[in-house]
Amino acid sequence: MTTRTIKFSIYRFDPEKDAKPYMKDYTVELDATEHKLLDALVKLKVLDDSVSFRRSCREGVCGSDAMNINGKNGLACVTDVDSLKQPIQIRPLPGLPVIRDLIVDMTQFFKQYHSIKPYVQNDTPAPDRERLQSQEDRKELDGLYECILCACCSTSCPSFWWNPDKFVGPAGLLAAYRFIADTRDTATNERLDNLEDPYRLFRCHTIMNCVDVCPKDLNPTKAIGKIKDLMVKRIA
Amino acid sequence: MTVPVRKFDAVIVGAGGAGLRAALQLSEAGLKTAVLSKVFPTRSHTVAAQGGVSASLGNSEPDHWHWHMYDTVKGSDWLGDQDAIEFMCREAPNVVVELEHFGMPFDRNADGTIYQRPFGGHMSNFGEKPVRRACAAADRTGHAMLHALYQRNVRANTQFFVEWMALDLVRDEQGNVQGVVAMEMETSDIYVFQAKATLFATGGAGRIFASSTNAFINTGDGLGMAARAGIPLEDMEFWQFHPTGVAGAGVLITEGVRGEGGILRNSNGERFMERYAPNAKDLASRDVVSRAMVTEINEGRGCGPNKDHVLLDITHLDPEVIKSKLPGIREISIKFAGVDPIKAPIPVVPTCHYQMGGIPTNYKGEVVVNDQIVSGFYAAGEVACASVHGANRLGTNSLLDLLVFGKSSGNSMIDFIKHAPKDLPVLNTADVERSVARVDELNQRSSGVEVNDARLAMQATMQKHCGVFRFKDMLKEGAEKILEVEKQVANIVIADKSKTFNTARLEALELQNLIEVAKATMISAEARTESRGAHVRDDAEDTPERPNGRDDQNWLKHTLWHREGNQLKYKPVTMKPLTVDTIALKTRSY
């Protein structure tokens, strides 16, 4: 890849001066070494330092730079800029209040994450050494613990858009199952009680947008299905 | 203007591994603690650590903390303080087991114990042969650890101030630390966080270099704040260049890849590390491997059209091992190098990774200046220099450092707070006013140097003049250049003066911190006329009296850079451990 010009249309909103948000066009020249959407945004910020977005690790593990890219949620740092149709439409994650430009208020998202008590609960006294866990049992956590809390999934979920205060959302439910699945956690019953509710768990209608957008290739829908199975088994 | 004051028992700046580990101690002790972070805690750079956290658990084969200590002292090229190193290595099994109890999803051995893999410089029986000491969660150990620590803090009801940037330290007239001035990023409102005890756990400053594995947020904020408040910075000439950053992108590829059997090859396909480190080979210490790689490239045996990198080969490993033990690396390699490592080797190049130096502390996390404890001030993690890493850090000792010193500083703070007067003293408003004035100046300046231009100038200077190999003339020139860049930084301008989540202003404030680190690094490096660990220069010759150019007679001492006048002072290395015999000076080879 050589030097090329990339066209953007970016959602702009500064509450201090804008009555309402608008889309603004930008053109950025990229060098041969610049491949990712984040590279382009960082360069764009040099041209206009008021363009605001979050970013940190630039390698897809911190979860800061989630945004809506040509209509689909994703991380800017792992998205190939050359694969995108131009002008690239960049908007904030949908469904959350916008603080400024691409920066959204994630309070509701984290509130739901916290609501599932995201920590191992174990009421037996801790041994001197590690708690033993078989390789098979540990394998149950794969595909669950890798979540980076970027919110791509929850903010692509219509059920979360409609009930962000009542539906835990795919990220929170994935985390809930991560602890249910952990043999070291002894609070499965309480965790299921916590989700036994018409909204908290059962608003998931397996639309599967979450699976489609997850930048870590995780499958919240599958985890939610497993929680639902446990609910059914518990009644039986 | 009056700046509002919020009062706490303790303030922690930074919510990576060290900050979270300390916060847990304080919250569980019931103390009123504020944790400030520029990013949501799980976005801190600890999240990017991959390979493991070291502890002599001996789950696969015999191991001992004393062997771990030996390796760490040797890895540090004897610049590490042996009391702190003994403390860390002895504590390692405890803090790792504790982390497992917190819910850390470690990989497991067949018997259910924590999985451990070999790593660079980890040896059994005082340097004899490689040992499995790195406790791992696939190649996402940092991510798993940071999330486990955050989760445990949720359980402990720790009070977080997310997306707050600390601006400056507040000290009273005796120099006692009273807290920090901080800005809420969403509103640009400035507050004082006054506390009995203040901990800096702000991480490193790898962004002083053009090519770095570090996140954008690693801008040395704690170091900048300390320097402006008259605290010297220790051993800042020592920067670790990780052997395996993805060529071009800089993204980290863990040493765990070599731990699992990966091999470095030059353009002839040769496993060149056999020539440089006949015993440890690809698992020699990081400084040794990085220099070998640069030597290969400089001598024309680099790979690719520009012969500017070498190859990390794991094509001989079982694809199932790659998928289960190195899934994150495979993902990074595909995304950033366009290579599936199951099928083809990964192009890699040494990349700035870790700062061994920092704010001078003892092993209790207390900041120490001129043999005196700075009352109320603590530092832990990459921002601190305890010093356990000396002139070169061993892989996996960074995550260990966060746990051990996060915990020990938390405990020291609890003890200090218990004995401190109940009421907070009168605040020294002079420091607060200086901090506010610094922000005002940025808000008011209408012309000057673009932030990006000044930052690029700094990064290019550091990269060119202070890299893997250092040269006397280049260092001298580099020191002059960086002082020129400092003048540019003093005159930076931002176009965006708004209040709501103004990231332009934040980047300007970060650059003001980075430049302090860059100066400290360059000036300390120019002065140290020997080669030791990661600091290797052309004029320090390898002689029988000075093996590898290391000059123990003149340079077995810590550098202390003072911002005022760029003065350098020195202090002796602590050679006496806590309970065992000194690990005596020896020529370092792997």
Give a verbal description of the structure.
The complex is a heterodimer of chains A (236) and B (590). Chain A is built from 8 helices and 7 strands; from the N terminus they run ββαβββββααααααα. In chain A, α2 (107-115) runs parallel beside α5 and α5 (169-180) packs across α8 (220-235). Chain A is an alpha+beta fold and 236 residues long. The model of chain A has no long low-confidence stretch (mean pLDDT 97). A 5-stranded mixed beta sheet of chain A has the order 2-1-5-3-4, with helices on one face. In chain A, strands 6-7 form a two-stranded antiparallel sheet. Chain A has 2 domains: 4-104, Beta-grasp domain (Ubiquitin-like (UB roll), Roll); 107-235, Alpha-helical ferredoxin (Fumarate Reductase Iron-sulfur Protein, Chain B, domain 2, Orthogonal Bundle). Chain B has 590 residues and is α/β, with parallel strands linked by helices. Among the domains of chain B are: 243-352, Flavocytochrome C3, Chain A, domain 1; 430-536 and 559-566, Fumarate reductase/succinate dehydrogenase flavoprotein-like, C-terminal domain (Methane Monooxygenase Hydroxylase, Chain G, domain 1, Up-down Bundle). Helix content of chain B is 35%, strand content 21%. Chain B is built from 16 helices and 22 strands. In chain B, the strands form 6 sheets. In chain B, strands 1, 2, 6, 7, 8, 9, 16 and 17 form an 8-stranded mixed beta sheet that branches. A 4-stranded antiparallel beta sheet of chain B has the order 11-14-13-12. In chain B, a hairpin with a 5-residue loop joins β8 and β9. The longest helix of chain B has 25 residues, at 503-527. Chain B is globular and about 65 Å long. The model of chain B has no long low-confidence stretch (mean pLDDT 97). The chains are: A alpha+beta (236), B alpha/beta (590). Chains A and B meet through α3 of A and α3, α4, α10 and α15 of B.
